[in-house]
Amino acid sequence: MTVEDVKKELRELKHIERCIKVRETIRDIRTKRLVKLMEMPKSPETEKEISEIKEIIRSLNIQDYIRKATALEKKYFGIISTLGPKEQIIVFECFVNGDKTYWQVGEQLGYSDEWVRAKVREIASELARRMTTA
What is the pTM for the complete model shown? Predict the structure, then answer.
């Protein structure tokens, strides 16, 4: 496994996690709307809207995204857990949670964004090496 393969899969995990969050938000909003519609007097229009919202909720495929995320997590988390605490924070904040920039992670850890960027390369190399020997 190459360093680029590791980065690609960790970026994919980040993307999947974002997709799950977005789809959960959509599901929650549509579910609230569905509850309101079901409380309304029945009419062909409301029945049609109820049917359409149920189809939207079914089409979100949240379970498929969760399955993909779980497979990648299973692949990496055993190895990630053997990294040092700072390295784990970098992996989780930059890739898994995916909400922070290198600068923000550097601020959190008391280092520069350049230090974090270098550590990301170092961590990716280490993960690739361990994945190859595992």
Answer: 0.80
Confidence check: pLDDT of 134 > 90:
no
Burial (CB count <10 Å: 0-12, 13-18, 19+), residue 41 = exposed
* 17 neighbors 98 (Cβ within 8 angstroms): yes
Residue 13, judged by CB atoms within 10 A of its CB (0-12, 13-18, 19+), counts as buried
> Which residue do the tokens 């495929």 mark?
61
Residue 108: band (very low, low, confident or very high) from pLDDT cuts 50, 70, 90: very high
Tally of domains in the chain: 1
pLDDT confidence of 112, banded at 50, 70, 90?
very high
Q: Report yes or no: 124 and 2 within 8 Å, Cβ to Cβ.
A: no
Which residues span the domain enclosing 45? 3-133
DSSP states of 16-70 as a string? HHHHHHHHHHHHHHHHHHHHHHHHSPP-HHHHHHHHHHHHHHHHT-HHHHHHHHH
